[in-house]
Amino acid sequence: HGGLFIATANLLGLGSRLHVRFTLPGHGELEAEVEVRWLRAFDEQTSGLRPGMGVKFVDLSQKAFEAITAFVAERKPIFHPD
Q: What is residue 80's predicted lDDT score, i.e. its pLDDT?
């Protein structure tokens, strides 16, 4: 519940901040300010893994926090080997 993975080939630099809008099933559209914390570029050896960025929430409304907390509690965990 601390952040998101954004699947994209358009990677930003570490520490970059951006405003994101996303939808959680059953919770509607949410918005947050995030900071890029880690990157995964395309690599032919790990072509099964999507390129993208791990972002941390840095400004999140109480409504968004509660929706994310509820979504995480309802959802089965997933595992992506790195």
A: 59
